[in-house]
Amino acid sequence: MKLKNINIEERMEHYNVNGLSITLIENGQISGTEYYGLLEVNSDRKVNENSSFSACSISKFLTGMIVIKLLEEGFLYLDENVNEKLVTWKVPENKYTKNKKVTLRNLLSHQSGIKDPEGSFFELNSDIGIPSMVELLEGKTPYCKVPIEVQCEPESEFHYSDAGFCIIQQLIEDVMKKPYDQVANELIFKPLEMKNSHLNTTILERDKKEFSCGHNKNGELVDGKYPIYPYPTASGLWTTSLDLAALVLELMNALKGESKIGISTNLVKEMITSQRGKSWTGLGVFLEGSEKELEITSMGWGVGFQCMMVAYPHFEKGAVIMTNAELGVHQLEGIIGDIYKSLSS
User: Fold this and answer.
1) Which ranges constitute the DSSP H helices of the chain?
2) Distance CA 308, CA 225 (A)
3) CB-based contacts of 25: which residues, under 8 Å, 6+ apart?
4) According to CATH, what is the number of the domain 2-344?
5) Among residues 7, 10, 8, 14, which one has the least CA distance to residue 219?
6) Neighbour count for residue 3 (Cβ, 10 Å)
7) Greatest CA separation found in the chain?
8) Quick check: 8 and 296 in contact, CB under 8 A?
């Protein structure tokens, strides 16, 4: 893909965006990477190819890829009741789970019947610390004060859910018997050489020079400068546009039978197929269009950051756009939308 008829510096000034990173994909390979501005307002820290941004909910795309790999290896099953393999916490049985049980397919496509409690899943508060997934799912932390349970029959309704992805994290950790960030490192980051991708928040404490600060819609630093979400599967990924593009390329390669990490074409096709009659949702990604014209997207929006991944897997094209600004409007109504509209083949 190419950028057409857009002056990015002018758009950044217009929207008070301090830093921006874009990687473009064309013909199944990286066709260009561009970096603009600063990692921190009023500093000399410039955005470069190693600059990590908070990917926020694009973490769910990574989670989808990890699950696909674990399905391939036979550790997990897409349509099995997740309680069969959950050990340290289980989805509570109630009247809504009587006829249909919660499955990985349901959780990845936000159709498990689980709804996030209002005001939950906010950024890390250092006074409270990082919760365990079990504490979180049991409603025993300020991050989620209500125990998580199914509130309508699985597959009957769509409810975008961070809690659902926290269940996926607990499932992976119970099955693999190791922390989720270690699983991601071994299965995805190392083999795809995603060297600037991190889920373990302590890395942020150790080396902040390559990490971007978050900024508000006025271009000012947000409180704490580096907002962290202690829910890796849902929104904990810090990464670069280049690393995220490597993950998009892995999906495209798997689709044509050339996966670097051993994912089959059939499973990747499942990931980008409409789930249970909801045309817009795949497994960890969102969908628009069909057949060759299929567009897959994943968007992130958190304190101080907004970003977007868009790909046309059958045309082997795509783009990753990351900013260190939270504009207070939907991504497509701000600078990301301006860039998205300027993309052309």
Assistant:
1) 8-15, 59-72, 104-108, 133-137, 162-176, 180-184, 202-206, 232-235, 241-255, 265-271, 335-342
2) 21
3) 1, 31, 245, 248, 249, 252, 311, 316, 317, 318, 319
4) 3.40.710.10
5) 14
6) 16
7) 59
8) no
The CA distance from 85 to 334, in Å, is 42
| Model pLDDT for residues 95-154, shown as the tens digit of each residue | 999 999 999 999 999 999 999 999 999 999 888 889 999 999 999 999 999 999 999 999
Query: Which residue, among 168, 177, 205, has the nearest Cα to 68 in the 3D structure?
Result: 168
Separation of alpha carbons 255 and 313, rounded Å: 8
Whether residue 51 contacts residue 212, with contact meaning beta carbons closer than 8 Å, is answered with yes
Residue 86 neighbours by CB distance under 10 Å: 18
Determine how β-strand 343-344 pairs with β-strand 317-323. unpaired
Q: What is the pTM of this model?
A: 0.96
- Looking at the chain, how many residues does it have? 345
| 258-294 pLDDT tens trace | 999 999 999 999 999 999 999 999 999 999 998 899 9
